[in-house]
Amino acid sequence: MSGRQELLSGMALTVFKLNGRFLDVADALATPVGLTAAHWQVLGAVLEAPLSVAGIAREMGITRQSVQRIADLLAAKGMAEYRPNPAHRRAKLVAPTPQGLDAVRRIDPAHAAYADRLCDALGDDRAGEVLAALRDLSAALDAIEAEDARDG
């Protein structure tokens, strides 16, 4: 295996491990308010503005089907609702309800405490560098995917 293959494998395996760790942290933060990490993820995507299921999937990097399943569960629990979409008659917008907003707000103190612990462990400057590197990695993968789509 070449050095570049080892770098790709190392990045991928590290991100997979981080994904699992972050999901565990998110579940631990969300469970006390009756949510799962997936519920929190979908609600978090629509806090600023309602989005279609496909829009949430694009934003979060997950499948449309999994977002649809979670949005339906959230709607059944009264934490999200479907609204008409002026841009597309059939693709409804997902929006949080007051109950969903309240649940996310109740996560905030534990979320803030965990953020403080992580930033204390890394240092604020290093935490910012890690975030920038992860965003750069994501942008590079997006660019390669777009190039592959263009080249057919």
TrEMBL record:
Transmembrane regions: none
Any one GO BP annotation for this protein: response to stress
Domain HTH marR-type: 4-139
Annotated PROSITE patterns: HTH_MARR_2 (PS50995)
Keyword DNA-binding: yes
GO molecular function, one term: DNA binding
Keywords: DNA-binding
Protein's name according to its UniProt entry: DNA-binding transcriptional regulator, MarR family
